[in-house]
Design brief:
About 1% of the residues have low confidence. This protein is elongated. By secondary structure, the chain is α/β, with parallel strands linked by helices. The longest helix is centred in the middle third of the chain and has 67 residues. Helices cover 56% and strands 18% of the residues. Belongs to the RecN family. Pfam families: SMC_N.
Length: 559
């Protein structure tokens, strides 16, 4: 439960602190005094988005802090799931800087707004007038029935999962597989369209059996074949110069070696020159031998020339076709085509595997949906009966509640479409809440539903924002008593404008405006018994309550 709330520098609130009673707390005050501002601040504490324009002083940061006693609630797993320290006291804090930057903390640990919401939704439920309007929405009604049927409760099914969450996880798994299946189907269809063309291109490349460096080799060979006669002539001439002519080089070198050898006796330096000259002669003899071999091998070969030209033309044609310059690029394209052609088979296998998994997930989803649906339907009669009883106590003895149900395609919430039908008057046919319920009837419906759900949830604190709209008199007294009964298991904080409800509170807070020299400030104070009498008398009779109004106020408090 909330044991301390501090609000600093928010809207009309310069600084505010309250320490609510663990049972029923009533907040009253004039319209515009700041009651809803307090709710806005609490909403920020529970993860709502912030706006720096709402700062009381635009040069200072806004701080909202709530201290909760959670020792009596089984919430440790919630904190462990978010990797947060757990203690009997939980401190939520929200800070908004003048620049608009927002920071959130749980037990002084920085957290994201998402984590703050997850923790906050386990600590406090705020019922606003917007929730009353939501009552006409069928998805909101389905959520109400799930809470009533225990479908959202933990530790009752599949480990720590609720029926609804367990189904929802299976549904999400099925939808993901369904999406994967559709994606693979589209990919396979596209791949099959391109399969014939890609297979043709691949076969064309595979048949030519390209080798990594053959283009350069073929181009070199073709040049030699096309110039064979000229090459052979020049090789012959070179051999002659080296070995066969009258003044050939090798003979001259041989003579040179002999001359130098004769000089070796005169000086060691000539010995070195002789050795170097002999090395040149040996090298030239090797060169001459290789030139002779090359000359013998070089022959004009028209057939081979044609073969090489055709091979190169094929390579050039493929390069132009695929808009590349090298064989390496053609081989890369060949590998890509192999992958594309092979992927059709792989996609087909993946599609079959995904289809099997999708059907298994669908079967599991529908089985869990059937369990969820049955639990809902079993609760319909008891829900209608209990809600009728409460509405009768709140001055609507002729009210009728009928839950209309029909099967639907699977969604995140199951395979059920429900609508709560209502009629307030005898003989009137039940209709959808939007058409059948007035403002006051909506308020009584919502309060009755909240009363029914209070025992089904483990929320420490419930906040009501003017849930008593449209009611008065004895009905208001009964509403106050219902809140008192709820407060035996939950801390209740109720913003009210009715004296009959204000008198039921264990603690009574009064929100008022205080005018300073330069601006208006919203403040709150806990009323003493005497101040409660004054406030309730003012709520009964206005600014100048009569003696009878004071008497009525005391009577209400004595009740």
């Amino acid at each position: 439960m909330l044991i301390d709330l501090k609000i600093k520098n928010y809207a009309l609130i310069e600084q505010l602190e309250m320490n609510p009673s663990p049972v029923l707390n009533i907040i009253t005050g004039e319209t515009g005094a700041g009651k809803s501002i307090m709710l806005g601040a609490i909403g920020l504490l529970l993860g709502n988005r912030a706006d720096s324009k709402l700062l009381f002083n635009q040069e200072q940061k806004c701080v909202i802090e709530g201290v909760f006693d959670i020792s009596q609630y089984n919430l440790k797993e919630v904190f462990v799931a978010e990797d947060l320290d757990f203690d009997d006291q939980c401190i939520l804090r929200r800070e908004i800087s003048p620049s608009g930057k927002s920071r959130a903390f749980v037990n002084d640990t920085p957290v994201t707004l998402d984590v703050l919401r997850k923790i906050g939704e386990n600590l406090m439920d705020i019922h606003s007038q917007h929730d009353t309007l939501q009552l006409g929405d069928t998805s909101f009604q389905l959520n109400i029935l799930d809470i009533y049927a225990g479908n959202t409760s933990l530790d009752i099914y599949a480990g720590n999962l609720s029926y609804l969450k367990d189904y929802n996880e299976t549904y999400r798994r099925y939808k993901k597989l369904e999406g994967d299946y559709k994606k693979l189907t589209d990919q396979l269809a596209q791949a099959q369209k391109e399969l014939d063309y890609n297979t043709f291109l691949l076969n064309e490349l595979e048949e030519i059996n390209l080798q990594q460096d053959e283009q350069e080799q073929l181009e070199t060979e073709l040049k030699e074949l096309e110039n064979a006669e000229d090459i052979k002539l020049k090789l012959t001439q070179a051999v002659q110069y080296l070995t066969e002519s009258e003044f050939n080089i090798t003979s001259a070198l041989k003579d040179t070696v002999q001359l130098i050898n004769q000089l070796a006796a005169f000086s060691p330096k000539y010995e070195e020159l002789r050795t170097r000259t002999e090395s040149c002669m040996i090298e030239l003899n090797d060169v001459a031998g290789e030139l002779e071999d090359a000359e013998r091998r070089t022959e004009a070969d028209p057939a081979r020339t044609t073969e090489v030209q055709e091979r190169l033309n094929t390579i050039y044609t493929l390069q132009r076709k695929h808009q590349v310059q090298t064989i390496a690029e053609l081989l890369e394209i060949q590998r890509e085509l192999e992958a594309k052609v092979g992927s059709v088979l792989n996609l087909d296998n993946a599609l079959s595997s995904t289809e099997r998994a999708m059907k298994e997930a669908e079967k599991e989803m529908l089985e869990k949906a059937a369990v969820l649906s049955e639990r809902r339907k079993v609760s319909f009669g008891q829900f209608e009966k209990e809600l009728y009883t409460l509405l009768a106590e709140l001055g609507m003895p002729n009210a009728r509640i009928v839950i209309q149900h029909k099967a639907a395609a699977p969604t995140a919430t199951g395979t059920d479409e429900i609508s709560i039908l209502f009629s307030a008057n005898k003989g009137a046919q039940p209709q959808s809440l939007v058409k059948a319920a007035s403002g006051g009837e909506f308020s009584r419906l919502m309060l009755s539903i909240k009363y029914m759900l209070a025992d089904k949830t483990a929320l420490p604190t419930i906040v009501f924002d003017e849930i008593d709209t449209g009611i008065s008199g004895e009905v208001a007294v009964k509403v106050g008593r219902m809140m008192q009964q709820m407060a035996q298991k939950h801390q209740i904080i109720a913003i009210s404008h009715l004296p009959q409800i204000a008198a039921q509170g264990n603690s009574h807070y009064f929100v008022y405006k205080h005018d300073t020299e330069d601006r208006t400030i919203s403040r709150i104070k806990k009323l003493s018994e005497k101040e409660r009498v004054d406030e309730i008398a003012h709520m009964i009779a206005g600014a100048n309550p009569s003696a009878s109004a004071y008497k009525s106020a005391k009577e209400l408090l004595s009740l």
